[in-house]
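Practice record 12: protein with 1-deoxynojirimycin.
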Amino acid sequence: MRTSALLLLAFAGNSFAQTAVVESPNSQIKVTISDENSTPSYAISFKNKPAINASRLGFEFKTQAAFRDGFKITHVKQQSVNTQWQQPWGERQTVTDKHNEVAVTFAKNEPNGATYTVRFRAFDSGVGFRYEVPKQAGFDQTHITKELTEFAINNNNNATAWWIPARGWNRYEYVYNTTALNDVPLAHTPFTLKTNDGTHISIHEAALVDYAGMVLNQRRPGTFNADLTPWSDGIAVKKQGAFNTPWRTIQIADSAVGLVNSDIILNLNEPNKLGDVSWVKPGKYVGIWWGMHINTQTWGSGEKHGATTQTTKYYMDFAAEYGFDGVLVEGWNIGWDGDWFFNGDVFSFTQPYDDFDIAALTQYGKQKGVQLIGHHETSGNVSNYRDQMDEAFALYEKSNVSQVKTGYVADGGNIKRIDENGIARHEWHDGQFMVNEYLYNVKLAAKHKISINTHEPIKDTGLRRTYPNWIAREGARGQEFNAWGTPPNPPEHIPMLAFTRMLAGPMDFTPGIFDMGFNGLGDDTNRPQTTLAKQLALYVVLYSPIQMAADLPKNYLAKPDAFQFIQDVPTDWQQSIALDGEVGDFIVFARKERKRDKYSGNDWYLGAVTDEKARTIEVKLDFLEKGKKFEAHIYQDGKNAEWKNNPYDLDIKKRVVSANDKLTLKLATSGGTAIRFKAL
Ligand code: NOJ
Ligand code: CA
């Protein structure tokens, strides 16, 4: 292996600058860390061209002197790793972690001054770095007021970015923007961009634990600052003693799918801390849910109450018959009457409504081999939830529930907590307080062998590796926006998510709406702006170990042939490959099922989706095992399909294929193709 880190003395200006270098294993990515002008900085090149220009590193603190100017590199330590690890569930079973690392220590030239180490890891698909503040004098308590990390994009004047705004009232639930990079204001991560030479970059973070979420603030054209979402008192981060920050990640690839085919976020997280997690189960579910979103049912009590014993039994029967593992029931507990959005203080997490017999349903589910999936909506009143959380999980554990969907519906900045003095404070969903609150919930759930699917979450940073019961989350506009959002999700939404939000981890999007005409078709109503084939393709394109069949049972029974694909498709994969795509335009995924339960582990699946443009895509089937034959069950847009007025035109056919074949996929406007390759 080549030398991966060197300490150089270079003459720069009037001072000698020290430099440390670390290269990716394939040598295409090179990080240079420098103390030129006594200012800690890093720069990244990709294929010998600058990608990130010299960018500042450092912090400002409330009481301690800043880690900013006057610092020199005092120590450099290098390491190389090439290992593999196994996921209990995931996009692939075996993950390779191959990287070179350099840990660079900075200090001032003064006795007993503070030191800071910045650890860089260079992978073939990008770079991660984090700060490490050791136990040292004056740092028993640290309040970070500002992180100074910059990301200075080279070639910024000719770059395009895909992003959603940060610190907005609607958290992460915005339509994605496509703009010139230089026009981006405050943006969330994963933040994806492309320069005019085709280099794709995505900035995000990994292992966000006990720290504020980072958003990107463009301070000068092309230069983004790590902007930490503060506490209600204005402090960014509060720490005791030694600490490490989350990893700042910069994925770099020369194609859009290169960003997707990367495990850098998972690799930068700590291994599983929960031990045996065989109780964490991927699977598919249906639920008493969509009816509330399209107003045919209610969460609250009354005539249209969705969560009744009778309706739940009907869903359990349906689930058992068609191979679903669980039935989500929302609106089962006291607190939904009146305006639940504002009255979160009155939610009980243990008291069912009178017409919901949880004990009877636990028994019924056991007979049928179907589990109840729990639901805890907080309306952002986290102290009310915290007070009841242990009992709430105990009730669900007793009721054979192994998965709970949580909800934190509240405007951004308006999460309510009661502090130690009994005073109400209002926090962001992505500040340090809530980062800790979400993880507290996941860890407590683990004690009850319960997995968590967080809605209105903190963004995903790969913590599923460490806590595999954090099984999915929302954190972007999901299907629900098609019921009532203004506007509903546009046709490009899915190919946008694939290259942005989905880089972070699984999303509980809740695909599979079969009746798009609940308000009428066309382009000016609330409805999924897709074809039926595209709804099927979502099960392959949008990775999640739990997938909902979100529509009402009667709408599946009305289209049994299309419904077959949802019954067949697994949610746990041996391997996943993004084959082709462009950000916001289209994406094609192939995934091989993982052996578990009724899945043999031999079948492959393909999902392709497009934006508002119809397109023809050639796909080589060379991902299939050579010499094997597969029966391809192809669900594609019919000849006359187009999303606005003819979304249901679906053409289903079967043909035998092998690795030598090519398929020509014809996608309608906002269309898709879903294929099961059944091993013969
Ligand atoms: C928002 C969630 O995303 C949605 O799925 C849920 O139905 C509502 N909150 C109510 O909890
Ligand atoms: Ca939501």
